[in-house]
Predict the 3D structure of the following.
Amino acid sequence: MGNSRQEHDRHDGRLPLRILLGVAAALAGAALILAPLSPRAIAVVTGIGLVFTGVALLLRAQRERAEPSAPIDRLGTALGIAVVAFGAIIALWPSAGAPWLAFLVGAGLIAHGLFAAVRAVRTRNAGRAAEIIAASAAVIFGALSFTWPVLTLEIFRFGVGAWFVFFGLQTLVSLLLHRDRSAPRRRSRAPGWVRTIGACAALALALLFAAGSGAILGGAPLPAPGPFYAAPADAPAEPGRLLRSEPLVDGVPAGAQAWRILYTTAHPDGSPAISSGTVLAPKQRGEDPLPLLTVAHGTTGVAAECAPSLSATPFADGAGTALEEMVVQHGWVAVTSDYIGLGTSGTHPYLIGDAEARNVLDASRAVQQFEQIRTTADTVVWGHSQGGQGALWTGQIADDYAPELSIKGVAAFAPAADLFGLAEADKTEAAGKTVSAYIAATWDRIYPELELERHLTPGSAGGVEKIEKLCFNGADVLAAILRGTQVPNQIFPDSLLDGAFGDRLKAQEPKGPFPAPVMVAQGLADPLVKPGMQHDWVEARCRAGEQIDYRTFPGLSHNSLVAADSPLTPQIVQWTLDRWSGAPATPNCDELPE
């Protein structure tokens, strides 16, 4: 061989092709980062970029044949072919589904990284350190594609795009700035520095992605329930019996006093159970019984650690500002059930309306036995989201289940009243998938005859298992929703919704009769409980003869509806005080707002 490798590249026609491939890879990366691409277009561009990368790897492997590294040549050729194949499948089959495509993206990047690492270790070129660093970045980016299967082609595209840009520029730098080793002048070290800096930047970005993914998806460590939540050996079977209490300090509003309570209640099948909860009372109180506010809390998760009474902010759920005002300014006592399985042992009856209602009513029964305070047997019931459904069910079964309590009013804020409609409308959305995962995890144990776990859509079971362990309050909310985004399809197939499981969902709809005035509030910008769905439910209850006070709030979402500055906050307080004073109710079934 009389010519150097560089001379061979210049005269055999491969140099222009390799330059073209470097430019194409960089442009593909820039398009992924900068262009407003649809998910399908992202898949196509990603696939094309991988094809360019794979061809460049093949050419590099062929160039190495002049050196004594045949094993590397064979490995490089095989991996180059694999990357081209992966890219071609992605580009030609962009509708295959995000997890499969993300797997191919990750496999392609890992294949490239492995080839580059082996090549760098087995050869003795001056840029070996840069190649090893770059290879590490490729492997990390590939592994992250498996962690974010759905987001890989939508959000993680920025990382993939950055890698394509780096690979393309690295190829161009190594070709256009490389000096002939046989030249008498001193070889420039600039290209080596450029490659090293670029490789370090790519590795830093990959490590940043990895660290961020671990921090976000891992959730926040939560305190495990302690001995207080354990059921006494001699617990009575009768529901609504107070077992124990202890002072609660964290998250208690100024001017208030709080306790945890443990009491008896019932499982969904009616068998005896234990639940925990909280009591919030004004510090300044007289001898007369205080009016009672019964609160059904919204979704906090389905694991034992997700109990509101374990939270650092146990009274922030739902209309927390209005709750504080009712207690501190108006002298009410508020009791909230954690529900079975949150804090205490057992499976949380998530969105099983009559079971939640029994837990809520038994908490109000238990507080009647609480020696530190005296409350009335008359009560107003509140609830937001899951708790809105629970509040409506509490009113619906109160006369039969707990006749010693008198319901003066029921206020439901963005209630999950039409559970079947909710499952149908939100089945492909991130929050809807998270809620569906909670249902799948709990109902599979409560209703084993449905065999939900066996009938989930392909690829959903792993996501359900991860989401089940995350709470939906505090720092865990983002992790739970992001985990929901990584479930590839709707969790429940349509065939399941159309069968016995769908019938169970429909059975959770509270239809009344309600023993007292009902107020339903709905934000018109709610992405979870759709305003149209809520309107249809209210309209159906009105046609059935129920008198509903339906209030809508333009621009408010699921959570901003009950925020401190929401216009609903003072309305909740006044409506509750009106129910206590006996003021006439204000139903508006004849002219429902849109």
Remarks:
- Residues 123 and 586 are 83 Å apart (CA to CA).
- The first strand starts at residue 242 and ends at 248.
- The longest helix spans residues 190-217.
- DSSP finds 19 helices and nine strands in the chain.
